[in-house]
Design goal:
It is a multi-pass membrane protein. The protein is α/β, with parallel strands linked by helices. Helices cover 54% and strands 8% of the residues. The relative contact order is 0.13.
Length: 739
């Protein structure tokens, strides 16, 4: 090897004095950073090694037809017995399983403490996120209350906090604003829909005979979207299509949430400055909103701006202190509630609305409104929006529940989680609520304050119930700028993802690119389009990885049956005349040409060799004056008397997960091309799926089953045996003399 070549991985047996005491014959690995060509080769022996073929008997498959299979499934699923009915009920209502076994002494203190703290945090956040969803503050309180109760009954995770989530509120708000404009609330020249007549900011619904103002119509749209999202989630659970969430990778979800956070920040900017601006929707809404903000910045309400700055100066440092000392604090400082109470008192006694025209939350009614069915006429308009909302909601809920279950050593049922989050949307949609899901920030608070079971959700609901029945009207004078600051401060976690990018880049550049593409498309286009772009780009990256996968030639680790890449390790042994090729990807229509080109490049190209032989034969014909009819004979003579040094190619199929028809055809073509120049092709370490595909694709005949081997070492031993015979025996009967 040249002196310029870099250090390689050494893959050779250790000396017994250097090896581990428990494993003196362990293998020592040393990385090869540049490929080398001077590999140590096997010593050639005239006597071939003993060769023993591995024989494995396949399991006999039951010969049942489709009709019998369907009948058996129906009989199994449709049978009813007391035990099965009990299991079904207990499975659907997990609370009936764990609540009777509840350990009061062990768990009650942690559950009450965590429930109280999360409830206190949820009060200001529920009011703040209502603005983001385009709703009145009371509807955010309703949403958090009902979600906590229903998840207590149906959920299997002991730690996650289900309630309002900023990204879903943003998506709901965009849909609500679009439907409000279509109904004519924000544009007097637009014709109202749904049989309603516009009258300024009020619409008269002829079907119900009552007045429906902008707030009423907004929650009507929000609850209808929520109902449809819940229906989708329950349907996913019924048909067990939770696999959809696997297409939402961690990088994609992180990029999506960060991109949506920029949109949330942008949507709250007008409240920080006290500007009365229309909400921008559609593609490029982020840029459009900032253009509107800067065009109207001279109209900034100084009172709202000062309030926003003061709240930021209080909230940000305290949040950082909470995070920095979370291991020492028994409970985080409820700074949001403190800020809300202080700001409300200052606004009320300072008469900021009357004196400075500061925008305030307004009247928040006590009690509950009568239930109302969703507006069925709106379903065609919002059904598509609900798809993205439902997928994001259940993906975040399932991923968080599984993460915390793994951390604390218990299991959750992903299918039941989909039912739980689905009914957390369906049932509250009749009570003037909007879409919910698990939220990471509140879940972390819940876990860190001693939560033990789902009972903490009931305590949280009681806190919210107290606010709804008694305290809510006291927030009348609360400025909207304070709520906007609370929303923005809670985006810190998503925006901090930028700090993780260098580490992500070092681990996986592809994931980093997916993160950037999803983040930028979610921020600059729209949340729904951004999610779709992210999913499509992720799938494209998966295809790209299999389109041009890694491939290498293998060598044998001395005194073992282990084969590794000769481009990655040094001191590997290779056998003259035998090349072992590994392809690290499924072999299918997308990468079949890549497989052939890599194989031909790293071994020999049979097409070029045949062309060279034909040219040599034609020259010989011209030189010796052989007639045209003797060309075929001359080629046969050439093939017989000038064999190649390479006589066998072993394809290691251990990394080939599956084959399609194009892959099988490619293997057939490769085998045919190589056999035409006297090289036999052997397949080794095929998994059962690949073997089954080869059998169905008639890759080899019954008498040619020796082409498939259970190990690379076995295939190499077979190649040595066939080489040391009179000629190289190729399965189709072609024999090339070794003389």
């Amino acid at each position: 090897m040249s002196s310029e070549s870099k250090e390689q991985h050494d893959l050779s047996p250790r000396d017994s004095t250097e090896g581990d005491d428990s494993s003196p014959s362990g293998i020592h690995l040393e990385v090869q950073r540049e490929s080398s060509t001077d590999f140590k080769q096997f010593e050639t022996n005239d006597q071939c090694r003993p060769y023993h073929r591995i024989l494995i008997e396949c399991q006999e498959k039951s010969d049942t037809n489709f009709k019998e299979f369907v009948i058996k499934k129906l009989q199994k699923n449709c049978q009813c017995s007391p035990a099965k009915a009990k299991n079904t009920i207990l499975g659907f209502l997990p609370v009936l399983q764990w609540l009777p076994k509840y350990n009061l002494k062990k768990n009650i203190l942690g559950d009450v403490m965590s429930g109280l703290i999360v409830g206190i945090l949820l009060v200001p956040q529920s009011i703040a996120y209502s603005l983001l969803a385009g709703q009145e503050p009371v509807y955010g309180l309703y949403t958090s209350f009902f979600a906590s109760i229903i998840y207590f009954l149906l959920g299997t995770s002991r730690h996650i906090s289900v309630g309002i989530f900023g990204v879903l509120c943003l998506m709901i708000g965009e849909t609500v604003d679009r439907e409000l404009q279509k109904a004519g609330y924000d544009n007097a020249r637009s014709a109202p829909s749904l049989g309603m007549v516009s009258n300024g900011s009020m619409l008269l619904n002829h079907t119900s005979g009552r007045i429906c103002d902008k707030s009423c119509y907004a929650i009507m749209v929000g609850s209808t979207v929520t109902f449809m999202a819940g229906v989708y989630q329950v349907a996913m659970g019924l048909f067990q299509v939770g696999f959809v969430s696997v297409y939402l990778s961690d990088a994609l979800l992180s990029g999506f949430v960060t991109g949506a956070s920029f949109t949330i920040l942008t949507s709250q900017a007008k409240y920080l400055l006290g500007l009365n601006l229309p909400r921008s929707n559609g593609v490029g809404s982020l840029i459009t909103t900032w253009i509107h903000v800067f065009r109207n910045i001279h109209k900034t309400n100084i009172c709202d701006l000062i309030t926003s700055l003061l709240c930021l100066l209080v909230l940000l440092p305290t949040k950082e202190l909470n995070e920095h000392f979370k291991s020492k604090l028994k409970a985080p400082i409820p700074i949001e509630l403190v800020v809300v109470v202080a700001a409300t008192l200052a606004s009320h006694f300072g008469k900021l609305h009357e004196n400075y025209n500061s925008s305030i939350a307004g009247h928040i009614p006590t009690g509950f409104m009568p239930p109302k069915v969703p507006e069925w006429n709106l379903i065609p308009s919002v059904a598509v929006d609900a798809i993205a909302i439902s997928i994001i909601g259940f993906a975040i809920t399932v991923s968080l529940s599984e993460m915390f279950a793994k951390k604390h050593g218990y299991t959750v049922r992903a299918n039941q989680e989909m039912y739980a989050i689905g009914f957390c949307n369906i049932i509250p949609s009749f009570f003037h609520c909007f879409t919910t899901s698990a939220a990471l920030a509140k879940t972390l608070v819940k876990e860190s304050t001693g939560c033990q079971t789902q009972l903490s959700g009931v305590v949280t609901a009681l806190v919210l119930l107290l606010v709804l029945l008694v305290i809510a009207p006291l927030f009348y004078s609360l400025q909207k700028s304070v709520l906007a600051v609370i929303t923005i401060v809670n985006l810190r976690g998503a925006l901090r993802k930028f700090r993780d990018l260098p580490k992500m880049w070092n681990i996986s550049r592809m994931d980093t690119v997916i993160w950037f593409v999803t983040m930028l498309s979610s921020a600059l286009l729209s949340t729904e389009i951004g999610l779709l772009v992210g999913v499509c780009f992720s799938l494209f990256c998966v295809i790209l990885r299999t389109q041009k996968p890694k491939s290498s030639l293998l060598g044998l680790v001395e005194e073992s049956e282990v084969f590794e890449s000769v481009s990655a390790y040094k001191n590997l042994q290779t056998k003259p005349g035998i090349k072992i090729f590994r392809f690290v990807a499924p072999l299918y229509y997308i990468n079949k040409e890549c497989f052939k080109s890599a194989l031909y490049k790293q071994t020999v190209n049979p097409i070029l060799i045949k062309v060279a032989w034909k040219k040599a034969a034609k020259r010989k014909i011209k030189e010796e004056g052989v007639t045209l009819g003797g060309i075929q004979d001359e080629m046969s003579v050439q093939l017989s008397h000038d064999p190649l040094e390479l006589h066998t190619i072993v394809i290691d199929c251990s990394a080939i997960q599956f084959l399609d028809t194009a892959g099988i055809h490619t293997l057939k073509e490769v085998r045919r091309d190589y056999e035409a120049i006297g090289i036999q092709v052997l397949l080794a370490q095929c998994n059962p799926s690949v073997r089954d595909s080869l059998t169905k694709g008639e890759y080899c005949k019954k008498e040619e089953e020796n082409l498939l081997f259970y190990s690379v070492y076995e295939a190499m031993a077979f190649a040595e045996v066939s080489k040391n015979q009179k000629g190289i025996c190729v399965p189709n009967g072609l024999s090339v003399s070794s003389d």
